[in-house]
Amino acid sequence: MSEITLETGASSASGAARDTLELAISGMTCAACSTRLEKVLNRLPDVEATVNLATERATLRYPHGALTVEAAKAAVERAGFAATETGALQREQTRARHEAEWRLELRHFWIAALLTLPLAAQMPAMFGWWPLAEGQHDLVPRWIQLLLATPVQFWIGARFYRGAWASLRGGSANMDVLVVLGTSMAYFYSLAVTLADRHDLHVYFEASATIITLILLGKLLEARAKARTTAALDALLRLQPKMARIERDGVLVEVAVDTLQPGDAFVLRPGDAVPVDGVVDSGTSAVNEAMLTGESLPIDKRAGDKVYAATLNGDGVLRCRATGVGASTMLAGIIRLVEQAQGSKAPVQRLADRIAAVFVPVVVVIALLTFAGWWLSSGEFQQALINAVAVLVIACPCALGLATPTAIMVGTGQGARAGMLVKNAEALELAERIKVLAVDKTGTLTEGQPAVTEVRAAEGFTPDGVLALAAALEQSSAHPIAAAVVTAAKEAGVALAETEEVRAVGGKGVEGRVRTAEGWRAVVLGSPGFIAEQGASVPEAMLSELTAAGRSLVAVACDGRFAGLIGVADRVREDSAAAVARLQGKGLRVVMLTGDHPATAAAIAAQTGIVDWRAGVLPGDKAAAVQALGAQGERVGMAGDGINDAPALAAADVSFAIGVGADVAVEAADITLVRNSLHGVADAIDLSRATLSKIRQNLFFAFIYNVLGIPLAAAGMLNPVIAGAAMAMSSVSVVSNSLLLKRWRPGR
């Protein structure tokens, strides 16, 4: 079973507040179960419900206050299942309970196997592979067979009877109904033959017992494999440390992470895992954030930088202040998104759901027709019964219900490990169909912060001298370009000079006096037009060259003479060009949408290899541009990071938010890329293709067992025991195939 959580405040498409309720469901055994329960829950007023067989979870969304937990649980119980409210339990306790249930099932299997083994030992004699002595009808006396088969049928197999009764009481049939019908027919026929002392007829105690034992084995293997599909999520949960170090009276003291509150100070020693999200107050170190971003290189941290829970400190000491604790950490957000995606349904699963809804009744009809056809044509009741049993046993739809959710669980888990957070399964499916990718410029293709790219000095001045004059005036300004100039001066080793009479001229620039080695100098900086107004003309050739390159220009004049030009630009990320080329290599048309000047847009497009771009696009126009691209009949993706990208992200078929982006962009996106790189979009598309490939393979495996098995069983070519083994292995093969997704790695 899974946890139950109540999440309030989600919004519907109409904007009305909606609640989300997640229930842990027990008693589901196959796709027919989950389909039936989903129908029952969707009949509740204003409720939208999905049921996931692999996660054993029902997710209900409804208008705020329209449904209580008790009413939802009552509906589940009316459908023949149980819903458990386990939100208060810790994950470790839930995992321990699952382990206890596993051990109990394992014990039941071994008891069933020991009781069944003597029965199965005489199967070679049935097929003529082991000759019997004259007058000997069975290797094992029939009354001993009866004693061995009865506890397997009614004690070990009681779970199937309970499940069948609950299903029928709920108004439909599931896998348990098929198992109970098949094994009970074989058992009671054998019981009648034994009581009548008809040694001229075969008994099939070994068939009923062996079928139940094999199904139990299949369930055990399936449960263990399903547990492995959540290994990525469990690994994330284990990352966060349980203890944190705080400083009291100059001494480091360990306290429980749960006791930390926002604003509390904590200390990271070399090699420590970060306990909560925070900001560095002092110290320098390199922090390994691979567990969140998938990026292997450590990130340098200093005062003012953010640190995240579960990342690993390097060889420095950092003193930090908590900003996000408990459910507010990035790690907790990742876990919530992964769980949400694992519990959602991909559109491709609708086919399996529709089939599962009618599958069991159809199989029962086929079994009845098989029985009637064989009895009427051959007159052999025994053969007709066995063939009907084989049809019932081979037809279990377990694999059909596991085909999609197990692949989604493994795929989203692998994505989380690689720094990709998939919000829902539909996004994962649609990502592989994208033909056009619209990308924002600032913060997506570029670093999102202006930086000095070049300094041009006039005759009589040096680049460092121009930078020193500009930085002196800009050092008290909070403007992004001013910060870029000051940062460039510090990186160049230029000392910030003393200033006086500094005055900002609104919308134009700054003027003041700067103390230099030659004495106080009158300095003016700002736009080239502002400098020209002061009588210091800017050379046209220099101005044209930098303007054509898409630079924002800061002109500097000293004592009435033009001193130089500083080019400022938002630098392209180092890997943007390679990421764009990789996306184009996958057949995607990459379109850049930006509100920037056409010259700047053209320069960025040239550097990144983008041919199709639109400049001067306002936020509302970005959404319209995405819709226009989609109107051409192609699936459109959108990648962005800012508040102004949210409308376009919402308008796209699949949207990607760069992890450094604004919260509203992350909320609007279908897939969040924790790593600040457009390569994440290519990785997400690769993951989508790999996951959908597994889903298609799983559906093939699920269908092929039934498409081939049912006709063979109806034709009398499939022994019930072999049918039971094949049915058990169908589920195991589907889950095992999904686990092969664990081999997927980003960047391939």
Describe this structure in words.
With 748 residues, this protein is of the alpha+beta class. It folds into five domains: 5-89, 2-Layer Sandwich (Alpha-Beta Plaits); 94-231 and 339-410 and 691-743, no CATH class; 241-328, Calcium-transporting ATPase, cytoplasmic transduction domain A (Distorted Sandwich); 421-446 and 573-688, HAD superfamily/HAD-like (Rossmann fold, 3-Layer(aba) Sandwich); 449-571, Calcium-transporting ATPase, cytoplasmic domain N (3-Layer(aba) Sandwich), CATH 3.40.1110.10. It is built from 27 helices and 27 strands. The longest helix has 36 residues, at 679-714.
Tally of separate helices: 27
Give the terminus-to-terminus CA distance.
35 Å
Major β-sheet profile: 7 strands, mixed
Helix content: 40-55%
Stretches where pLDDT falls below 50 for ≥5 residues?
1-15, 125-130
Q: How many individual β-strands?
A: 27
Overall spatial form: elongated
Q: Please state roughly what percent of the residues sit in beta strands, choosing from under 5%, 5-15%, 15-25%, 25-35%, 35-45% or over 45%.
A: 15-25%
Question: Brief overview, please?
Answer:
The chain is α+β, with helices and mostly antiparallel strands and 748 residues long. It is built from 27 helices and 27 strands. Residues 1-15 and 125-130 have low confidence and may be disordered.
